[in-house]
Structures are given as C-alpha cells and as structure tokens.
Amino acid sequence: MPKQKITKEDVVNAAYELAKEHGQDYITVKTISEKLSCSVQPIYTYCANMEGLKRKVNEKVRDYVKKYVSEHTESGDIFKSTGQAYLQLAKEESNIYRMFISYQRENVSSLEELYNLEANPEIAQTVSKQLNISLDRAKMLHLNMLIYSMGIGMVFSRTSPGIPAEEIFSQQDCAFRAFLAQALE
Fold first, then answer.
1. 2: cis peptide before it, omega within 30°?
2. What is the DSSP string of 36-86?
3. Residue 135 C-beta-side C-alpha neighbours within 13 Å
4. What's the pTM?
5. Which is more confidently placed, 75 or 90?
6. For the residues of 21-41, what is the DSSP string, one character each?
7. Using one digit for the tens of pLDDT, what is the confidence trace for 98-118?
8. Is residue 2 over pLDDT 60?
9. Rounded CA gap, 43 and 169, in Å?
C-alpha cells in the first residue's frame, strides 16, 4: 500500500476544520492525526509547536471572517449591515467568531491601531458622507460600533439556548442610536 503524503497545508486545514466544528481547544496532535487518518509523525514534522499551528489557523479564521462579512454586507447600508454581518457570523459560526475575537492582535497598543487593523476604511468614508459629519467623527462612530458589535457578538455566541437574533439586532440598533447622537453633537 502506498504511503499517504500529508502536507503542511493538510495539517493546517485539518486543524482549522476541527477548530471550526469543535473550538480551538480541540486542536491537538491526536485529533489532527485522527482527522487526517495518519500517524502523529506528519503533524510533528510540520508543527514545531502548537502555537505556530494555531497562528496559521487564526490566519485562516481572519480570512474567513473578512470574506464572510464582505459577502453579507449590503452596499446600500454598508455601516449597519457590516455590524449585522458580525452578529450573524457569531450566531452561525460561533467557534470561528470566538477564535476571531480571542486571537492575539500583535503590535496593537491603541484603539486607533485596532481600528486600522480591523476596520474597512471605506465604511467611515461612507458614513461621513451619509451623515454629513467629519471623517474623524465617522471613524469614532465606526470604532464604537465595532467594539460594541464584537462584544455583543461574543455574548451572542456564548449563550445557550441562545438569545433571539431579533433581540440582539435591536440592542445593536439602540447602541447605534446612542453612538450616533454622540457623533452628531
């Protein structure tokens, strides 16, 4: 019987699928080898340590989230629909969302740096034009909503049997109105 060739990409993809289905804590050499139907040897060959593998998985998570949010954002209401896309992701893919929220964001030492890392700058520009407010106020409104949506999304992804989506979206809308009033002052 020919020897099965396991690649580094296979290992990363298997770890990602396991994390997506069961959560990041489920990524172990044993579970990856079981998923790939191989011995643990190829996993050890490609993974000097689990932290490096988890960083690769987090890169896949980040790419998935960006794609998901992009596909679930409406061009006519980019600001609101972006926030709702994050919440929908929290509901549909709670493990992915929790990994996205909890991964280490290196070289971030201010909220501005976090905003630059996580936000689509086109949204602040659009909000500035739509609401006739300065770009700085639009960025602050967007940052406030980003932080709020990430937080309430974490709550949404961690409740059982689960808070109804309508209640979460309504709460997000209340926060938006409060942040908007502040931006318009």
1. no
2. HTS-SHHHHHH-S-HHHHHHHHHHHHHHHHHHHHHHT--GGGHHHHHHHHH
3. 3
4. 0.83
5. 90
6. HH-GGG--HHHHHHHHTS-SH
7. 999 988 888 899 999 999 888
8. no
9. 42
Q: Which tokens hold the place of 18? A: 């396991």
How far is 104 from 92, CA to CA, in rounded Å? 23
Query: What is the token pair recorded at 184?
Result: 């318009």
How many angstroms separate the CA atoms of 149 and 145, rounded? 6
At 5, give phi and psi (nearest 5°). -95, 115
For residue 14, which of 57, 68, 62 has the smallest C-alpha distance? 57
Burial label, 91 (beta-carbon count in 10 A; 0-12, 13-18, 19+): middle
Give the position of tokens 């790419």: 63
Q: What percent of the chain has pLDDT over 90?
A: 54
Q: How many CB atoms lie within 10 A of CB 5?
A: 8
Residue with tokens 């061009």: 75
What amino acid is encoded at 89 in this protein?
L
Q: Give the CB-side neighbour count of residue 55, counting CA atoms within 13 A.
A: 9
Render pLDDT for 62-74 as a digit per residue (tens, 0 to 9).
Answer: 999 999 998 998 8
The whole-number average pLDDT for the span 81-110 is 91
pLDDT at 47: 78
**Contact call for residues 148 and 179 (beta carbons, < 8 A):** yes
